[in-house]
Protein backbone atom coordinates (compact mmCIF):
# COMPACT_ATOMS: atom_id res chain seq x y z
CA UNK A 1 0.00 0.00 0.00
CA UNK A 2 2.85 2.41 0.90
CA UNK A 3 6.23 1.86 -0.74
CA UNK A 4 9.39 3.86 -0.12
CA UNK A 5 12.77 3.93 -1.88
CA UNK A 6 15.74 6.32 -2.01
CA UNK A 7 17.74 7.03 -5.15
CA UNK A 8 21.48 7.66 -5.42
CA UNK A 9 20.96 11.44 -5.34
CA UNK A 10 19.19 11.43 -1.99
CA UNK A 11 15.59 11.71 -3.15
CA UNK A 12 13.13 9.46 -1.32
CA UNK A 13 10.13 8.31 -3.34
CA UNK A 14 7.02 7.43 -1.32
CA UNK A 15 4.23 5.86 -3.34
CA UNK A 16 0.63 5.29 -2.27
CA UNK A 17 -1.03 2.44 -4.14
CA UNK A 18 -4.35 1.20 -2.79
CA UNK A 19 -6.73 0.35 -5.66
CA UNK A 20 -9.20 1.25 -6.88
CA UNK A 21 -9.05 4.93 -5.87
CA UNK A 22 -6.26 5.25 -3.28
CA UNK A 23 -8.73 5.82 -0.44
CA UNK A 24 -6.64 4.89 2.59
CA UNK A 25 -7.85 2.91 5.60
CA UNK A 26 -6.70 3.70 9.13
CA UNK A 27 -3.53 1.60 8.81
CA UNK A 28 -2.68 3.21 5.48
CA UNK A 29 -2.63 6.71 6.96
CA UNK A 30 -0.36 5.65 9.81
CA UNK A 31 1.90 3.71 7.42
CA UNK A 32 2.22 6.83 5.28
CA UNK A 33 3.11 8.91 8.32
CA UNK A 34 5.77 6.35 9.29
CA UNK A 35 7.28 6.36 5.80
CA UNK A 36 7.56 10.15 5.86
CA UNK A 37 9.09 10.11 9.34
CA UNK A 38 11.64 7.49 8.27
CA UNK A 39 12.57 9.45 5.16
CA UNK A 40 13.11 12.66 7.10
CA UNK A 41 15.15 10.87 9.77
CA UNK A 42 17.55 9.46 7.19
CA UNK A 43 20.54 11.84 6.88
CA UNK A 44 21.08 10.64 3.31
CA UNK A 45 17.66 11.93 2.22
CA UNK A 46 17.64 15.45 0.83
CA UNK A 47 14.09 15.67 -0.56
CA UNK A 48 10.95 13.53 -0.82
CA UNK A 49 8.67 12.87 -3.78
CA UNK A 50 5.19 11.87 -2.65
CA UNK A 51 3.11 10.33 -5.39
CA UNK A 52 0.54 7.62 -6.11
CA UNK A 53 -0.08 4.76 -8.48
CA UNK A 54 -3.34 4.28 -10.31
CA UNK A 55 -6.03 6.60 -11.64
CA UNK A 56 -5.77 9.30 -9.01
CA UNK A 57 -3.55 10.67 -6.29
CA UNK A 58 -5.83 10.14 -3.30
CA UNK A 59 -9.58 9.88 -2.67
CA UNK A 60 -9.37 10.49 1.06
CA UNK A 61 -10.46 8.06 3.74
CA UNK A 62 -11.94 4.62 3.14
CA UNK A 63 -15.65 5.34 3.67
CA UNK A 64 -16.48 1.62 3.47
CA UNK A 65 -14.23 0.96 6.46
CA UNK A 66 -16.16 3.56 8.46
CA UNK A 67 -19.54 2.19 7.38
CA UNK A 68 -18.59 -1.38 8.30
CA UNK A 69 -17.29 -0.46 11.74
CA UNK A 70 -19.32 -0.53 14.94
CA UNK A 71 -18.85 2.21 17.49
CA UNK A 72 -16.45 5.07 16.92
CA UNK A 73 -13.05 3.34 16.98
CA UNK A 74 -12.61 3.50 13.20
CA UNK A 75 -13.65 7.15 13.10
CA UNK A 76 -11.20 8.09 15.84
CA UNK A 77 -8.51 5.99 14.17
CA UNK A 78 -8.87 7.52 10.74
CA UNK A 79 -8.98 11.03 12.14
CA UNK A 80 -5.80 10.40 14.13
CA UNK A 81 -4.23 8.73 11.10
CA UNK A 82 -5.03 11.64 8.80
CA UNK A 83 -3.71 14.12 11.36
CA UNK A 84 -0.51 12.08 11.67
CA UNK A 85 0.03 11.82 7.91
CA UNK A 86 -0.69 15.49 7.24
CA UNK A 87 1.64 16.49 10.08
CA UNK A 88 4.34 14.13 8.80
CA UNK A 89 4.34 15.96 5.46
CA UNK A 90 4.48 19.34 7.15
CA UNK A 91 7.09 18.35 9.74
CA UNK A 92 9.29 16.33 7.39
CA UNK A 93 12.75 17.91 7.87
CA UNK A 94 13.32 17.99 4.11
CA UNK A 95 11.08 19.44 1.39
CA UNK A 96 8.23 17.25 0.15
CA UNK A 97 7.32 17.45 -3.55
CA UNK A 98 3.80 16.17 -4.24
CA UNK A 99 3.14 14.71 -7.70
CA UNK A 100 -0.61 14.77 -8.29
CA UNK A 101 -2.53 13.02 -11.05
CA UNK A 102 -6.24 12.55 -11.58
CA UNK A 103 -8.33 13.19 -8.50
CA UNK A 104 -7.03 14.69 -5.26
CA UNK A 105 -9.91 14.66 -2.78
CA UNK A 106 -10.48 14.92 0.97
CA UNK A 107 -7.41 13.56 2.70
CA UNK A 108 -5.46 14.08 -0.50
CA UNK A 109 -5.93 17.82 -0.03
CA UNK A 110 -4.50 17.49 3.47
CA UNK A 111 -1.35 15.89 2.08
CA UNK A 112 -0.90 18.23 -0.86
CA UNK A 113 -1.79 21.37 1.10
CA UNK A 114 1.05 20.63 3.53
CA UNK A 115 3.58 19.78 0.81
CA UNK A 116 6.38 22.19 -0.03
CA UNK A 117 6.06 21.96 -3.80
CA UNK A 118 3.25 20.63 -6.00
CA UNK A 119 3.58 19.33 -9.54
CA UNK A 120 0.38 18.17 -11.22
CA UNK A 121 -0.72 16.42 -14.37
CA UNK A 122 -3.01 18.33 -16.70
CA UNK A 123 -5.92 16.04 -15.77
CA UNK A 124 -5.59 16.66 -12.02
CA UNK A 125 -8.54 18.01 -10.05
CA UNK A 126 -8.64 19.08 -6.41
CA UNK A 127 -11.63 19.11 -4.08
CA UNK A 128 -13.15 18.61 -0.64
CA UNK A 129 -16.45 16.71 -0.97
CA UNK A 130 -16.60 16.42 2.82
CA UNK A 131 -20.09 17.87 3.21
CA UNK A 132 -21.39 15.07 0.98
CA UNK A 133 -19.84 12.56 3.40
CA UNK A 134 -21.17 14.07 6.60
CA UNK A 135 -17.71 15.27 7.61
CA UNK A 136 -15.55 18.38 7.75
CA UNK A 137 -11.81 18.91 7.66
CA UNK A 138 -8.85 19.89 5.46
CA UNK A 139 -10.26 23.36 4.73
CA UNK A 140 -7.07 24.31 6.58
CA UNK A 141 -5.09 22.78 3.74
CA UNK A 142 -7.35 23.86 0.88
CA UNK A 143 -6.87 27.44 2.07
CA UNK A 144 -3.15 26.96 1.38
CA UNK A 145 -3.99 26.12 -2.24
CA UNK A 146 -6.73 28.57 -3.24
CA UNK A 147 -7.91 32.03 -2.09
CA UNK A 148 -10.25 32.29 0.88
CA UNK A 149 -13.54 32.82 -0.94
CA UNK A 150 -12.73 30.15 -3.51
CA UNK A 151 -12.05 27.75 -0.63
CA UNK A 152 -15.39 28.55 1.00
CA UNK A 153 -17.32 28.05 -2.24
CA UNK A 154 -15.56 24.75 -2.86
CA UNK A 155 -16.35 23.55 0.67
CA UNK A 156 -20.03 24.48 0.54
CA UNK A 157 -20.65 23.05 -2.95
CA UNK A 158 -18.11 20.19 -3.15
CA UNK A 159 -16.84 21.76 -6.38
CA UNK A 160 -13.38 20.91 -7.68
CA UNK A 161 -10.58 23.07 -9.06
CA UNK A 162 -8.30 22.12 -11.92
CA UNK A 163 -4.53 21.94 -11.91
CA UNK A 164 -4.53 24.90 -14.32
CA UNK A 165 -6.53 26.98 -11.81
CA UNK A 166 -4.14 26.14 -8.98
CA UNK A 167 -1.19 26.95 -11.24
CA UNK A 168 -2.74 30.37 -11.85
CA UNK A 169 -3.08 30.86 -8.09
CA UNK A 170 0.61 29.96 -7.71
CA UNK A 171 0.11 26.89 -5.53
CA UNK A 172 0.95 24.37 -8.27
CA UNK A 173 4.46 24.89 -9.62
CA UNK A 174 4.11 23.03 -12.91
CA UNK A 175 1.35 21.35 -14.92
CA UNK A 176 2.52 18.61 -17.26
CA UNK A 177 1.06 15.70 -19.25
CA UNK A 178 0.44 12.69 -17.02
CA UNK A 179 3.21 10.65 -18.63
CA UNK A 180 5.71 13.37 -17.66
CA UNK A 181 4.53 13.80 -14.06
CA UNK A 182 7.02 11.60 -12.23
CA UNK A 183 9.96 13.02 -14.17
CA UNK A 184 8.79 16.59 -13.51
CA UNK A 185 8.51 15.92 -9.77
CA UNK A 186 11.95 14.34 -9.67
CA UNK A 187 13.44 17.26 -11.61
CA UNK A 188 12.33 19.62 -8.83
CA UNK A 189 13.42 17.20 -6.10
CA UNK A 190 16.84 16.68 -7.67
CA UNK A 191 17.29 20.45 -7.96
CA UNK A 192 16.60 20.72 -4.21
CA UNK A 193 18.82 17.71 -3.45
CA UNK A 194 21.75 19.39 -5.21
CA UNK A 195 21.80 22.17 -2.60
CA UNK A 196 23.62 21.97 0.72
CA UNK A 197 21.50 19.60 2.84
CA UNK A 198 22.09 21.47 6.11
CA UNK A 199 20.90 24.70 4.51
CA UNK A 200 17.82 23.06 3.01
CA UNK A 201 16.84 21.45 6.31
CA UNK A 202 17.29 24.81 8.04
CA UNK A 203 15.22 26.48 5.33
CA UNK A 204 12.36 24.00 5.80
CA UNK A 205 12.33 24.57 9.55
CA UNK A 206 12.50 28.34 9.16
CA UNK A 207 9.67 28.45 6.63
CA UNK A 208 7.43 26.39 8.91
CA UNK A 209 8.29 28.79 11.71
CA UNK A 210 6.99 31.83 9.84
CA UNK A 211 3.69 30.29 8.72
CA UNK A 212 0.79 32.63 9.58
CA UNK A 213 -1.11 29.80 11.29
CA UNK A 214 -0.43 26.32 12.61
CA UNK A 215 -2.06 23.84 10.18
CA UNK A 216 -1.91 21.01 12.73
CA UNK A 217 -3.88 22.91 15.37
CA UNK A 218 -6.26 24.32 12.75
CA UNK A 219 -7.01 20.86 11.33
CA UNK A 220 -7.66 19.38 14.76
CA UNK A 221 -10.16 22.17 15.39
CA UNK A 222 -11.99 21.20 12.19
CA UNK A 223 -12.01 17.56 13.23
CA UNK A 224 -14.04 18.43 16.31
CA UNK A 225 -17.00 19.22 14.08
CA UNK A 226 -16.64 15.87 12.31
CA UNK A 227 -16.87 14.12 15.67
CA UNK A 228 -19.92 16.22 16.56
CA UNK A 229 -21.68 15.29 13.32
CA UNK A 230 -20.98 11.62 13.97
CA UNK A 231 -22.09 11.68 17.60
CA UNK A 232 -25.41 13.30 16.64
CA UNK A 233 -26.06 10.74 13.88
CA UNK A 234 -25.99 13.29 11.08
CA UNK A 235 -22.89 11.83 9.46
CA UNK A 236 -24.31 8.29 9.25
CA UNK A 237 -27.42 9.56 7.49
CA UNK A 238 -25.43 11.62 5.00
CA UNK A 239 -23.00 8.75 4.27
CA UNK A 240 -25.86 6.29 3.80
CA UNK A 241 -27.64 8.67 1.43
CA UNK A 242 -24.39 9.17 -0.49
CA UNK A 243 -23.90 5.42 -0.86
CA UNK A 244 -27.30 4.85 -2.43
UniProtKB/TrEMBL annotation:
SUPFAM superfamilies: ClpP/crotonase. Pfam families: ECH_1. The keyword Lipid metabolism applies. Keywords: Lipid metabolism, Lyase. The keyword Lyase applies. Belongs to the enoyl-CoA hydratase/isomerase family. PANTHER family: (7AS)-7A-METHYL-1,5-DIOXO-2,3,5,6,7,7A-HEXAHYDRO-1H-INDENE-CARBOXYL-COA HYDROLASE (PTHR11941:SF169), ENOYL-COA HYDRATASE-RELATED (PTHR11941). This is Enoyl-CoA hydratase family protein. It comes from Dactylosporangium fulvum.
Amino acid sequence: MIESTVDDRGVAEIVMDNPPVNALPVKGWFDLASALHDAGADPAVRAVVLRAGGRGFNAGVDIKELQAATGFAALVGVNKGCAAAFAAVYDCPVPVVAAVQGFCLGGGIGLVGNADVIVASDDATFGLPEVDRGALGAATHLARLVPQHKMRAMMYTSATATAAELHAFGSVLRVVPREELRAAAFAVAHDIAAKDPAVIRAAKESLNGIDPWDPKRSYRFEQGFTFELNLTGVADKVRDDFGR
